[in-house]
Amino acid sequence: MTLRMFCAVALLAATALPLGAAITQPVRVEGGLVMGVQGNDPSIMTFKSIPFAAPPVGDLRWRAPQPVLPWKGLHATDKYPPSCVQDIPSANLPWTYEFMPHNQIGEDCLYLNVFTAANSSAEKRPVFVFIHGGGFHQGGTEVPIYDGEGLAGKGLVVVTINYRVGVMGFLAYPELTKESEHQVSGNYGLLDQIAALRWVQKNIALFGGDPNNVTIAGQSAGGSAVHDLTASPLARGLFERAIVQSGGSTVGTGRPAGGAGELGGAEKAGQKFAEARGAHSLAELRAMSWQKLIDQNGERTRFAPIVDGYVLPAHFMSVIADGKQNDVVTLTGSVLGELGGISGAPRPVTLAEFQERARQRYGDSATEFLKLYPATTDAEAQAAQKQSNIDQALMAQYLWARVRAKTAKTKVYEYLWDHTLPGPDAEKYGAFHSSDVPYTLNTLRTSDRPFTDQDRKIAAMMSSYWTNFCATGNPNGKGLPSWPAVDEKPQVMEVGDKTQPIPLANSPDKIRFFEKVLTGSN
To answer: Which of 92, 133, 358, 409 is most buried, by the most CB atoms less than 10 A from its CB?
Structure first.
């Protein structure tokens, strides 16, 4: 569609909409004019592919995001932007079509999408900014389950953002560090997220949103990014609440929440990566096509946020211990199936393997562990392994909140999602990693899975919890089961099939054991 055709169609659509349905006139944001397109829900206007930074191409590759380039006329907002550079697998069960991007990919990808049912810019609705997952090497806003209409229809102004991933988003390299005014490199993806939040502060009121009531939310890597933004001084004042879904809100598991490497080690890994691609300088890297940069050739380099002393001054838990975090009320949790493996499929274990793992993991405390989780057969060992993984993960999540409480003034709400997503191999995968997202974002309609009335009831409940939290900082509301904030009582809010507070384990001895193991106390 040409720009002239788009403008004509948009203007005709605006005149056809019922009066007062939503914002139907052009909106002047940073860079120029945009005009919404009616969503699947006719009361919602969608503004897709709004630029929040200049295209990070050419000499801007591996630089902090630069100001938006102005445009003339109306900017087209009828399609999602390209996903940032990545390698998208064709299939990756249990994650089916609705969990992956399906559009074009490219370097010119720094766009965001706004979904609003506001009638005018004066409404000041709560704002929900969603950061997609994908292990920091995949994902994008075009993923079907990230559609913003589900929460916009419940009163939020929803913003979904792209950010650079993989090598384009997180490459550290000595020459990049040298050319930076802050003497750092890497973390470009986090800087993209911060740039998007700054855009929200300056522009979201035009869509009926309240810039003083912004919740940042993310799932998986997006949840880890929320932790990183909470730790970053560059993000201070850009949001008031945080939601972390399966993003590593734990202690004592070997990798702190928002865990990241250090700049020096990341630079060495960057050099090794460049040499493997035949590049021996930054100029050669910038001249290389992005297709060649993501060509794996049997070798995969992991790119992710790092502690650089600028964007991330220290590991997230260290920032919390020092009381230097952005102190915002936080809702966080995990999915039952992922506690024993990210896909939700149980990992087979024999009795001998179970006992050996216990000795390796718990050392002198292994005997106590095996008394708490006894097994005499392979089947019993499998069950004990699964339950002990769940108990330890819940305890690590709870202790994270207790450590945080020592320096934070705001509350934490924690959950455990237990509902199995219907569909292919549901019995095998159960409540797998990411399976909660269509319910919390209220996007069941984007999937062709055989949802029942019970699924729709759960989605209405979960999205109401999320909406309430964004509006007030408390998920509770009329008609919902009461959700207590974390306190001294060792419990978690189970949500999904059963929605109620439950103990972290079925015996005080198990709770005491994992507290001792995870905190190193006697």
So the answer is: 133
